[in-house]
Amino acid sequence: MSDIRISDLAAATNMANIDLLVISQDNGDTTYTSKKITGANFDMVKGIRYYGLSATDPTTPTPADGDQYYNIILDKKMYYDVGRAKWLSFEQLPIFFGRNGLVTNGSYYRSTDGLAFSSTSGFYTPWAATIVGMTYTRDDTDQATFVVTAGGVDTTATLSSAAVSGATTSLNVNINTNVVLGVRNYQAVGGNTTNNVNGVFFVRWRI
């Protein structure tokens, strides 16, 4: 075990200032390029920062796209989505909806075993979530809109439909914990009946 000089003690107690490993590369022209692993970048692997375990979303250093940590409250691995500017779970949950037959404008679709969604019947969120996408197929092409509801209230998680299939992967709608999610066919102007819909929307968890 080697001693630490008094002059180095301040740096030793500030991990960001310590050179943990220095690698020199011979450039072939009598010059060398040094690469360092320091206390500041020790948790970086190929450009992704790993923050370790936390009960809250890390903020320091400022997260970049793809950075990761493990949330001990959700018991889930999280990543930073720079496009949505928030931490989301790696786990993505599909929630299915649809109906064999016709669904008029303003009516709910159905879920498990043909049960209709409503303000109190649907998927109950055990944690806060973000709706990130939606897809569908159908047998008609009349103008309609698929709307995710939260406790019976329409959200901004929508997908306009005028084709037999469609998808969006750019939704960014936050949902609180302990909320019942459902889907209905609703368009204020120009909404129509849909036929034989088979759809799914996707949620990721967050703090």
Q: Biggest β-sheet: count, sense, barrel?
A: 5 strands, mixed
Structural class determined from secondary elements:
mainly beta
- How far apart, in Å, are the first and last alpha carbons? 44 Å
The DSSP helix count reads: 1
The share of residues in extended strands comes to over 45%
Helix content: under 10%
Radius of gyration: 25 Å
Strand order of the largest sheet: 3-4-5-6-7
Shape descriptor: elongated
Contiguous uncertain segments of 5+ residues: 9-16
As for the CATH topology of the largest domain, it is: Jelly Rolls
Write a concise keyword list for the protein shown above:
49% strand; 207 residues; five-stranded mixed β-sheet; 1 helix; 3 domains; 16 strands; Jelly Rolls
Fold topology:
Layout: H1 6-12, E1 19-26, E2 32-38, E3 44-45, E4 48-54, E5 68-71, E6 76-81, E7 86-89, E8 92-103, E9 123-124, E10 129-137, E11 144-150, E12 153-161, E13 165-168, E14 173-175, E15 180-185, E16 194-205
Parallel strand pairs: 4-5
Antiparallel strand pairs: 1-2, 3-4, 5-6, 6-7, 8-16, 9-15, 10-13, 10-14, 10-16, 11-12, 11-15
